[in-house]
Amino acid sequence: MHETKTTIGRRTLLGGTIATLAAPALLLRVARAADEPIRIGFPTPLTGPFGAEAKDQVRCAELAIKQFNAAGGLKGRQVELLVRDDKLNRGEAATRTLELIEKDKVACIVGALSSSVQLAVNEVTKARGMLYVSISQSDTITAMPDFSRTTFHEALNPHMTAGAVARHVFKPGMKVAILLADYAYGQEMAAGFRSAAAAIGGIDIVLEQKHPFGAADYSTFLPRLRAAKADVVCICNFGRDQANSIKQAVDFGLKRQSKIVVPVLLYNQRLAGSPEAFEGIIGGSNYYWTIEDHVPTAKAFNDAYRADTSGGVPSDYGAYGYAGIRLVLDAMRRAGSVDADALVHQIENAKYDTYKGPETMRACDHQAVQSVLILQSKAKAAMKNATDLFDVLAMDDGSEANLRSCADLGHVAGK
């Protein structure tokens, strides 16, 4: 009878032992990862001239996350919002975004409140295949070459917003003058008004007057606007620039001669400015709280905000914060995952209604197709309370017909 001997080498023995010991550790790490919170990065300019809008963006984004976590999160995992101040600076925004991705290990990025800053954020996320939902107006982020398969634009864009205002106000035979902040936002809004004027026909744009971003004094620009004797003056700027330029234009007597319109009539700037300065001014908006009277999701959003803030109402740009986060969270819930490819698949061609009525995400350029509200600022005597700032004159249906075509944006069919 022969005895069979099996020889086990030292390396084999050690390898098997290490594998046996490592297996529980690996399982433990996987289990811990499943229990760790899902982090969402949120760059926004908390300091600077857009601070009021940014702070309400954060407040509404946090509300969306509270609701998601209260409903059980993603398979029990909770979500955290990591807010970073981009200081309205491209370099700062890129640095903070890179830190969020590489150091904080966020699942995705939502945010930014400037056309140029969001493009800086997009450069970082695009290079790393990170999902990014932009919540600030831009005409370029959905166009080539800035477009990315992992970038989505939940906000309105200047072509949509200025176009809706122009269709409501411009009539053939009118003379139009434009005052614009000399950076991406002002330039794109002015282009939106020009495009709409050309489509309407018979509109004479008699003056385009640029001013520097953050101007405190408009006295050197207003005489040219008055001398133009335009029927309509379009003021294309944002944040404190809007409040300052409107007040000075009214003090200068411009409103007695011309109808003043803005592409985006900002809730927080109207709160900060006087009713007398803003009275009668028309502008566009993504959201105004009184649509709750006929939009159920607006009523639910407002009620949740009131409960969270002891009676306040959300602003327009605050609503973007809520909508952008909801877009991502709802996609995570449907996908059952935070994987970027899975989320892209869920968001492309999505039809949803989170806060203002139906929206559709257009697949070719990842632009949210949505309504534009046309608002007019109320006289002080007509206000019922401190938040009763505007009348809703109309709701542009936000159909795809009012967007630039995907071919115009540089997208090739089927790619």
Briefly characterize the structure:
The protein is of the alpha/beta class.
Q: Which terms would index this structure?
A:
15 strands, 415 residues, 14 helices, 18% strand, Rossmann fold, disordered N terminus, 7-stranded mixed β-sheet, alpha/beta
Layout of strands and helices, then pairs:
Layout: H1 10-35, E1 38-44, H2 51-70, E2 79-85, H3 90-102, E3 108-111, H4 115-128, E4 132-134, E5 151-153, H5 158-169, E6 175-181, H6 184-200, E7 204-211, H7 222-228, E8 232-236, H8 240-251, H9 254-257, E9 259-264, H10 267-272, H11 275-278, E10 282-285, H12 296-309, H13 316-335, H14 340-347, E11 351-352, E12 359-361, E13 368-369, E14 372-377, E15 390-396
Parallel strand pairs: 1-2, 1-3, 3-4, 4-5, 6-7, 6-8, 8-9, 9-10
Antiparallel strand pairs: 10-14, 11-12, 12-13, 14-15
Helix pairs in contact: 2-13, 3-4, 5-6, 13-14
Structural class: alpha/beta
Whole-number mean pLDDT: 92
Order of helices and strands: HEHEHEHEEHEHEHEHHEHHEHHHEEEEE
Number of helices: 14
The portion of residues assigned to helices is 40-55%
How much of the residues is beta strand, in percent?
15-25%
Number of strands: 15
How widely separated are the two ends?
73 Å
At the fold tier of CATH, the topology name of the largest domain is Rossmann fold
Describe this structure in words.
The strands form 3 sheets. Strands 7-6-8-9-10-14-15 form a 7-stranded mixed beta sheet, sandwiched between helices. It has 2 domains: 38-156 and 292-370, Response regulator (Rossmann fold), CATH 3.40.50; 159-285 and 372-400, Response regulator (Rossmann fold), CATH 3.40.50.2300. It is globular, with a radius of gyration of 25 Å. Helix 2 (51-70) packs parallel to helix 13 (316-335), helix 3 (90-102) runs parallel beside helix 4 and helix 5 packs across helix 6. It has 415 residues and is α/β, with parallel strands linked by helices. It is built from 14 helices and 15 strands. It has helices spanning 10-35, 51-70, 90-102, 115-128, 158-169, 184-200, 222-228, 240-251, 254-257, 267-272, 275-278, 296-309, 316-335, 340-347, and strands at residues 38-44, 79-85, 108-111, 132-134, 151-153, 175-181, 204-211, 232-236, 259-264, 282-285, 351-352, 359-361, 368-369, 372-377, 390-396. Helix content is 43%, strand content 18%. Residues 1-8, 10-14 and 25-31 have low confidence and may be disordered.
